[in-house]
Automatic annotation (TrEMBL):
This is Putative plant transposon protein domain-containing protein. Residues 71-249 form the Putative plant transposon protein domain. Residues 358-417 are annotated as: Disordered. The lineage of its organism: Eukaryota, Viridiplantae, Streptophyta, Embryophyta, Tracheophyta. Residues 403-417 have a biased composition (Basic and acidic residues).
Length: 431
């Protein structure tokens, strides 16, 4: 946006006046202005994180990630978000009205933040939510079943003095562990890295079991929770920025933007899975993180379950490393392909003799083996039939020459350069 300048009286420098943000009231009431000055003017933003997709059938992630994304149509929702405007998000929360949680005044506009509007941003259907109903009527026996489903054997609920329940993050199985890392910034934010509260545990269970979750309704409720907090980071900054822009709220290109965060890549997943589990129980709420699970001589089933979990984690780690290696190989072959194209362009522009080049194995850069064309063995017949006769002028042939070998005159067959180049043009890797 343009910035006007005017000279200050008595000084030789010019003072910049930002006219990019429209001259409209930033706050819908004096109470909102006071809330901004008292609580939100200096608050940090809690950035969202998402997955960085690859162009493959699995999006470049293990089965327990991409299967949930495809089943729930969460591809847009789970993708790493765009940048957020810091002042805009702070003004949004200052103007939030508890009495009207589905609409917020922002710079002269009424921004719809209902569940339907949020779902529209992520291209989600406004479905009936099974998670919220289940979380309201869950009973004690179901809580035990939830722990068995998403945690390692031997895990128990930790009860606080006030009666609240939580689980240790280290006790989660690989799938719920990664989804918890996603949820705590994208759907149900939390600053607690070591523990997972009961509501988030139930949400993880709903994801693992394939229950329907209305993302818009959950986020709408969490925005209200964040607006009522007096301290801490402000949640959903990228989403709020997108909602405001969709309603025509004007912003300046010079406004502060939230620094980009690292997406949840294979490297991040590998690091999370490499953490050694530390079984947390009510009797041992603070175990050493690097310690192995405690021994239970009277519980052979625990040892078997623990060994199975370690095997599952090892397999997940191997799967992640395979994806990383595949991506590195594809990057290398794409570089080789681009380099070859550059060299070919140079040769073609400087010489008429070099017009045929080895065909690059394009399937090495494809996202999956199914997309690549089938390989075939190269035979002399295939070489001769793959080129038309009008290419004969590209490379001249050499006439036979006479050489003397041990006192005898022999006729040496000349090397057919054209045949060599054409053979190279059809050569492929053989498996």
């Amino acid at each position: 946006m343009p910035v006007k300048k005017r000279a200050m009286r008595g000084k030789g420098k010019a003072a910049a006046i930002n006219v990019g943000v429209p001259l409209v009231a930033k706050f819908g009431s004096e109470l909102a202005r006071k809330r901004f000055n008292d609580s939100f003017a200096e608050r940090n933003l809690w950035p969202e994180r998402g997955f960085a997709y690859m162009s493959s059938n699995t999006l470049g992630y293990p089965e327990y990630i991409y299967s949930v994304i495809f089943k729930n149509n969460w591809k847009n929702f789970c993708q790493h978000p765009s940048a957020a405007i810091v002042p805009l998000v702070r003004e949004f929360y200052a103007n939030f009205d508890v009495g009207n949680p589905n609409s917020v005044y922002v710079r002269g506009k009424r921004v719809d933040i209902s569940g339907a509007a949020i779902n529209n941003v992520y291209s989600l259907n406004d479905m009936e939510d099974e998670y919220i109903e289940f979380s309201k009527r869950v009973h004690e026996n179901q809580l035990s079943e939830i722990v068995k489903e998403i945690c390692v054997p031997g895990t128990e609920w930790i009860k606080s003095a006030r009666g609240s329940r939580s689980l240790s993050r280290c006790n989660l199985k690989p799938g719920p562990l990664i989804w918890n890392h996603f949820l705590k910034s994208r759907l149900m934010p939390s600053t607690h890295d070591n523990t997972v509260n009961k509501d988030r545990v139930i949400l993880l269970f709903a994801i693992v079991m394939g229950r329907k979750i209305n993302v818009g309704d959950v986020i709408n409720e969490q925005i209200g929770v964040c607006a009522g907090r007096q301290s801490g980071g402000l949640w959903f900054p990228s989403l709020i920025t997108s909602l405001c822009l969709a309603q025509g709220v004007e912003i300046s290109s010079e406004e502060e933007k939230l620094k980009a965060t690292q997406p949840i890549t294979m490297t991040v997943i590998t690091r999370l899975l490499h953490d050694k589990p530390a079984i947390v129980t009510a009797e041992n709420p603070n175990p050493v993180p690097e310690a192995c699970p405690p021994e239970h001589s009277n519980r052979a089933s625990f040892d078997a379950g623990s060994s199975f979990l370690q095997l599952e984690q090892r397999i997940s780690q191997m799967e992640v490393m395979q994806y990383e290696s595949l991506q590195m190989m594809r990057d290398f072959w794409k570089y080789e392909r681009d380099k070859d194209l550059t060299l070919q362009k140079h040769f073609r522009s400087n010489s008429k003799r070099f017009q045929s080049f080895p065909k690059f194995p394009q399937h090495l850069c494809d996202s999956s083996a199914e997309d690549s064309e089938p390989e075939r063995d190269v035979t002399p017949e295939a070489v001769s039939s793959s080129h038309s006769m009008d290419e004969a002028h590209d490379v001249p042939t050499t006439a036979p020459t006479t050489v003397r070998d041990k006192g005898k005159n022999t006729m040496a067959k000349s090397v057919d350069k054209k045949s060599i180049l054409r053979s190279a043009a059809n050569w492929k890797w053989k498996h």
